[in-house]
Amino acid sequence: MKKIEAIIRPETLEPLKEALIRAKVNGITINQVFGCGNQLGWTEYVRGNTIIMNTLSKIEVTLVVPDDKLEEIIDVITSVSETGEVGDGKIFISEVMDCIRIRTKERGEIAL
Ligand SMILES: Nc1ncnc2c1ncn2[C@@H]1O[C@H](COP(=O)(O)OP(=O)(O)OP(=O)(O)O)[C@@H](O)[C@H]1O
Ligand SMILES: [Mg+2]
């Protein structure tokens, strides 16, 4: 099992959710987050003052998928959430040791 943590633009959340549901993922967790990437936010000039807005509102989508579904889901995210501009986001992948469905106590991929 792999955990996919995708940080995306808020405006791509709705189409991404639809695409992930079409791809039959087992579950999705969504968080509102603030962050910055390589550009470290942006700079604004307000009444002669320079304001560095170093975190932007982003959405973090977390899902755990079976190993054989990983590449398909990465393709869905990269195609739906891409605008081509800086700040499109990032995907982090990590190994998941186990999953337990609390109701049935099933474990592993079957519990996803
Ligand atoms: N190395 C990182 N660690 C943790 N979070 C990150 C990292 N890089 C990006 N993020 C998160 O992803 C969001 C989007 O990052 P962003 O797309 O701007 O990455 P980037 O590396 O600057 O790429 P780009 O040059 O396309 O903007 C950030 O606001 C931050 O929340
Ligand atoms: Mg950036």
Instruction: Name the CATH architecture.
Output: 2-Layer Sandwich
Strand order in the largest sheet: 2-5-1-6
Low-confidence stretches: none
Secondary structure: helix percent: 10-25%
Average per-residue pLDDT, rounded, comes to: 94
Q: Overall 3D geometry? A: elongated
Determine the structural class based on helices, strands and strand pairing.
alpha+beta
Number of strands: 6
Strand content: 35-45%
Could you tell me the radius of gyration in angstroms?
17 Å
- Give the helices and strands as they follow along the chain: EHEEEEHE
CATH fold call: Alpha-Beta Plaits
The helix tally amounts to 2
Ligands bound, unique: adenosine-5'-triphosphate, magnesium ion
Give a verbal description of the structure.
The protein has 112 residues and is of the alpha+beta class. The chain has a single domain (2-111), classed as 2-Layer Sandwich (Alpha-Beta Plaits). 19% of the residues lie in helices and 37% in strands. It is built from 2 helices and 6 strands; from the N terminus they run E-H-E-E-E-E-H-E. The strands form 2 sheets. Strands 2-5-1-6 form a 4-stranded antiparallel β-sheet, with helices on one face. Strand 3 (42-46) and strand 4 form a beta hairpin. Helix 1 runs antiparallel to helix 2. The radius of gyration is 17 Å and the shape is elongated. The N and C termini lie close together (9 Å). The model has no long low-confidence stretch (mean pLDDT 94). It binds adenosine-5'-triphosphate and magnesium ion. The site of magnesium ion (MG) has 5 residues, from loops. Adenosine-5'-triphosphate binds at residues 7, 35-39, 56, 58, 86-90.
